[in-house]
Amino acid sequence: xxxxxxxxxxxxxxxxCILATLLCVVYGILNWNxxxxxxxx
Length: 41
Known about the structure:
By secondary structure, the chain is mainly α. 56% of the residues lie in helices and 0% in strands. It contains one helix and no strands. It is rod-shaped. It starts with 7 loop residues before the first helix and ends in an 11-residue tail after the last helix. The chain crosses the membrane at residues 12-30. Keywords: Membrane, Transmembrane, Transmembrane helix.
């Protein structure tokens, strides 16, 4: 039992939530200004 959480499925859920958050942040940083370029043709 780590930090009062005995079930490994709960730990898996926490880890997946943290990884999903990090993935979204990295995706947002990499695509921050894409599509803002003005086409002058």
